[in-house]
Design a protein that fits this description.
Length: about 1500
Amino acid sequence: MTEKEEEEEEEVKGCEQMIGEVEGGGRGMCLSNGEPASDFSFSGVIQANKFPRRFRVLRLRSPLKGRTTYKKTLPAIGAKEADWQTRKSCTATAKPAPSPADEAQPHPPRLPQCAHFLLHLLIPKFVSSPSPQSSSNATTGGTMERMEQQTSETRQTSEIRRPSSTYTSTSTLSTSSTTKHRKVSQDSYKSTDEHSVVQRKTSAVVESFSQVQKSLQIPEGQSVPDFEEKLRPVTAQEGDKAVLKAKVSGNPEPRVTWERAGGRPLSQGTKTFCDNIARQHILKIKSLNLEDADVYKCIASNEHGEAIYSVSILVTENPALDFKKMLKKRSVGKREEKKPPTEEEMLRILSGADKKDYERLCAEHGFTDFRGILRRLKEMRKKEEVEMVRVLKPLEDITAKVDANVVFDTILELKDPNTKMRWFLGTELLRIQYSQGKYEVKQMGTKHMLCISHVGLGDMGTYILQVGDKSMSARLAVIDEPLKFLSDFKPKRVTERQTAVFEVRLSKKSDAPLIWKVKGKEVKRDEKFEVSLSEDGLTYTLKIKDVKVSDTGDYTISLGDLTATVPLFIERLPIKFSSQLKNVRVKEKGVARLECETSSKDARMCWRKDGRDITGNPRYIFVREGKRAEVVIEDCVLEDEGEYAVVCTQDNDAHEYIASASLTVEERFASVKSHMSDTQCPTGSSAELCVVLDDEKIDGQWFKDGVEVSGLHGVQVVKQGAVHKLVFTGVNDGHQGKYTFRAKGAESEALLTIADPPEIDSTILEMLGAQPVTVKAGQTATIKIPFSGRPPPKVTWYRDGLEVVEDQRTKVESTADCTTLVLSRCVREDSGAIMLRLKSDCGKAVANLHLNVLDHPKPPQGKVDFLERSGLRIKMKWKAPRDNGGSQVTGFMVERRLAGKSSWMKVGEVESSTTVFSDSKVEEGRAYQYRIRAINPLGMSEALETDEVYAGEPIEPPGVASQPQVSNVTKDSMTVSWSPPAQDGGAPVLGYILERRKKGSSMWVQANKELLTDTKCVVGGLVSDVEYEFRVSSVNRAGVGSSSPNSNPVLAKDPIRAPGLVRNLCVSDSSNTSISLRWRPPDQGDEPSGYILEVRPEGAKEWTKASKIPIAATSYTVAGLQERLKYFFRLRAVNEGGLGEPVELEEGVLAMPPPVAPRLDLQGKLKNQVVVRAGMSLCLELNFTGCPPPAVTWLKDGVATQGREVITKGKSHSQFLISSSQRSDSGVYRAHLKNSHGEVHYDVQVRVADFPRQPKNLRLVEEVPGTVTLQWDHTPDLADGDGAHYVILKRDTSTTSWFTAAERVFSSKYTVTGLLPGRKYYFRVVAQNSVGDSDPLDSREPLIIAKEKECVSSLLLKEYVTPPRQVKPSFLLPLKDHTVRRGHDCTMSCAYQGMPTPQAYWYKGEVRISESPRFWHNTANGVCTLVIPTCGAKDGGEYTLVLENPLGTAKCSCSLVVFDMDDNGLLESMTNKEKFIW
């Protein structure tokens, strides 16, 4: 016996010992550690059978019926001849290797190691005297009934689906009304509904979307992020996987992150990655637990905005995890006694079966030596098979650090190189191709490797390699080192204005934020500070830009409990003089400035002179502006000369920075810039002598006749900068003399004498100012004014402010006491102000008077405005003259003349009080010109002439007549003809003027004496053998129009015979734009010098020459013709004798090429299949060629179209248009082209897609409680191939809103599930395709969902008497908060206990709602349920459940939040509230 078989025998003996101890009552013990398993009491026979190699079977046989399971203390119900089998999930003593068949099946989650068995305890339900233990361990009746119902459902499930192996995963489906489930098929529903359901955590399905645009303007080609595929809510059990997939779009490419709406970080088992093949962003939770239930947000963001899609993950409780062992029913009912088969027969039975069915087949046939038959079967197959896989080197356990790379390797010898190899982590298959480089499988010869990069704590576990029927495993242990700083924190010294960089290296990644602090304040990211993290997430960097002295200090790094401090020292930049002190040279009394500029504006400065500090000396002025410093020395003296220096210092810098320069002061000498001048002044007046030097810093002295002026009465010495003055007040004879001014290097002299100023008698001044001097134009004005003054003054006359200059008309005569102004032949312009100015060195005198010269007025002002211009009158207005000539204007005279005439005629006068005149003697259409004169007593003004003005509408001379044509030429006469002008100028043409001239002459001679009324004239009196030219002018009432173009020169001589008719005129060739003709010369008349070909399009009346000059050849091609237009041609010969008679083609000629059969242009836009949406335009365009253009006929399904279409036909294309297409327009359209040389056609298949038609005959059948099967007749449009399907909707009679029950249904039958018992529902079926939805097909009457009927056992059971026991109400599982989308149902449930069974009362706030028909509630089997259908905003709030029985009361509350899809306040409303339980 092998070692493993011995271990199994020991385990069997331990089980038998344990069973013997518990027979008849006792406590079950755990096999691994001996701890109590559970309390139980039963009666019956317990038998231990031999255990197979890979599992253990414990069969409990009892005459009792029924069974149930419960966690911890479990009441036993019993079962009749029931067999239970339990397989241990983990064993401390021995763990046999799993077979490949077991590993291929899904495994349930592992149970705690201490639990080897979970016994289904049996309590005799019909025992008359139950044991005390069973009485004490009984629970409430509600719980027992619920457990019995669940056991019954589990037994039915086991009978329907027999387990294929020892472990069979049982899928469960949450039936909470608040949870959405996507139905795949009817089979999946049936299999799911057959399972018992336990939901531990209920929550609402959340699905929301929001989009925010940040940019005001988005460039073309870019966009805000959006979701191409919606995320789907997930509902799964504990231990299962959950996957969320999102597909996003946007430009620039969005950055995608995942968050939990509750604010908690993603769990360690959650992974996020991007599938580059499917272009999907995936969130994957490896093993769900109840804490993973939350709303997850997928955030896609770029520079233009962000999009957020939120969905919920609901986690339901997995019953398999709540039990220490899973017991499965082996068989039910009484088996018939059969004779067990022999060993050879059993080998034949098992040789054709799967390994997972070995145990079942042995049990069915009653074969008990299971271990022996397996050994025989294995030996038999070893003889038949050759080992396919040979392990030369197994996998080995590995221990690695976090973020290290790990390689599992093994050496295998494979019989078949195509043997499939799969790697597992625990029970999960590794998807290598979707791991984004996390896992990589390599092979080097017989060596097979699994490479894992950057391992983390989530990668710990057992890695299994399955090769064919063999598997091997090894464990990966990941060591998580403690978080610490790897950087060496040394003091950092940085030069001022540079960038300080701190780098902190971590030993591993951390989710805790790293905080930088300086001087106790947290460093925030801004323009000064830049905080960054490396791509590997281990290096944190802090950059301090443009460091200053104020940035000196200790910088603290905090990460969780880790803290480090790094001091920062700033080294000052040396001070540099960007502008040095410069040597300065100034003159005495001048201002000296010494300035410099440094590189730092914070430097401290000290000034020194010859080594002595002068900073506080008030003699100096110190100026400081930023980096610039300056010292100013005013009124320099010779003692200020010396060496000056500036000393600069700064904080944290012991150096002194010095700049120096020298100051030189030169002695100042002055020179006279402006000398004194001799001065004359009257006695008692004021006077001054002034000297201006070139230096205002120099002082001087005044001397009179060599003696310094000091104490002289009435004399004052004044100095104003560089101006030195000697001021006299009340000059007298004692002040006369020679004055001298002396300064350092300068001297000036001047004489002061006394004189009287000029003066004019005041009586004369009053007389001149009172009355002006008036003279008439042409007379002489004499103005004489006497005066007095010593010495004689200078006499100056002014007129209107300008000095009078003597000329032939102006004379000025002056004596010692009188002056006279004589103006000869005065004119009006001489009027104005006259001023006499007398000036001497002593003073001046002025006399003012006014001269008025009388003359005729100036012409009226401005442009004449015409107030009315009609055929009856012309009314005009003007302005009065600017100058009336010195006397009042008495009136205005108006004259006029015809336009183009020279003589004027007086038409009227008006008084001076008005400037408006109306001329009613006018002829309509005539042009007039007016002039206006002003009149005063001295005469009339010059005239103001107007522009030409028309009376009424203007009439112009006629236009230009056509060029004259000359015919009937003889040696002394010619016949000239012309055409009237196209424009008559607004009046009928009265006649024509015909003129002639000899060729080369410039003189035109009128050929007619009177106007010619005809357009033809015979001109005689010509000279033989002389060439003449003619021109014609048209005449109407407005005058003679422009001359016509000159005629061609014609020689006056007897005529030559004109040529005869041209022969054989015919068409030689043609195209779309040209026609070629040929002919033969005429055989009569003189020989032609050329031919004139004329052409006329069809419909035109006039002939047009085809060429400007006669055609010399006998063929010609006329180009530039319009395609397919018919043209007529005529031809005549011409010579000097004139034009011959024309020959015309009998029929018109079409401008088109030679005939061609029609041909299709397959390069056009028309396709052979066209799909158009109903209501849109159907446009079929066809391009073709053919000559003549073919006739186009459009056919639909072989019949000519007629009705709503519009057909456009052209020379080379045709268009078929239906502006608004309908479904009936579908069909085969044919374009048929035909001309005289052939025919062709083209077919197009057209399908008009429209809304599907309504399905018919909806029938409702309730086959299974809580479900309704809908049947209907297909819509006729389901087979159109445009993705037509059905959408199923339902509506509770209590609401008007429809809710989708299923989408994309292709059959005509569907079963709706999840309906509430006792409620009324309407159902709707809508056909849907790519265009839209059909009219809905609704059920006529509501369907009432039948309430569940109590299951009555068909067996006659003896009533079980519950032991008398009373329990106060309490909650085993309290109510949970709910968040529900508006319009959806909400289900609240909780578990309780209490004996007697308590009464349940529901409240919303303070209002009792238990009796309200709005709500549906149920209390059964220890579970209270409240259903709120079609939640609205008013349903939100707090709900309370009160349980009452004689022993007490219990309360439990929860909150309900109802939100919309776009409710941004959802996260604020979803707050965790404390549950209150009494």
